[in-house]
Amino acid sequence: MSLIKRNNGSLATRTLLSDFFDTNSFFNDRFFRNLSPDGEWVPAVNIIENEKDYAVELSAPGMKKDDFKIDVTNGVLNISAETKVEKEEKKKNYTRQEFRYESFSRSFTLPENISEENIAAKYEDGVLKLTIAKKAVVPQKHREISVA
């Protein structure tokens, strides 16, 4: 008796299932470690919409608030950070030098209902928190015009 692989279903279904089950990409490090397609580390981000604002939480442990650069250009919010740590230790018979460099950049297209002037950022406990205020909704006036 032999097992035969069958391809039942539409081409789209077969492709989707094949992409998921026939590759190891679901189980590789990139999926679980927040790696970009080119293998670079990117922090995990939560975006929460409230009635009056958006809250953005970016997980970046081990950084300082001075490591971050945040700007808005043409309706795109850019968040980047760069940190460099160097450590040199000299003892009687050896010298050891260690260094570490980390950087990332994330960009988000902002919706039209936000106020670019009212964006605040705060870094605490390894999480960068941004508050992006929404524009106040102006109720539209309704007026009927009679035909003369």
Task: Give a structural overview.
The protein is mainly beta and 148 residues long. It has 2 domains: 10-37, no CATH class; 42-134, Sandwich (Immunoglobulin-like), CATH 2.60.40. The chain is 11% helix and 45% strand. The protein has 2 helices and 7 strands. The chain has helices spanning 11-21, 29-33; strands at 45-49, 53-59, 68-73, 76-90, 95-109, 114-124, 127-134. The protein has a 4-stranded antiparallel sheet, with no helix packed on it. The longest helix has 11 residues, at 11-21. The chain starts with 10 loop residues before the first helix and ends in a 14-residue tail after the last strand.
For the structure shown, list the relevant keywords.
148 residues; mainly beta; Immunoglobulin-like; 2 domains; four-stranded antiparallel β-sheet; three-stranded antiparallel β-sheet; 7 strands; 45% strand; disordered N terminus
List the topology elements.
Blueprint: H1 11-21, H2 29-33, E1 45-49, E2 53-59, E3 68-73, E4 76-90, E5 95-109, E6 114-124, E7 127-134
Antiparallel strand pairs: 1-2, 2-7, 3-4, 4-5, 6-7
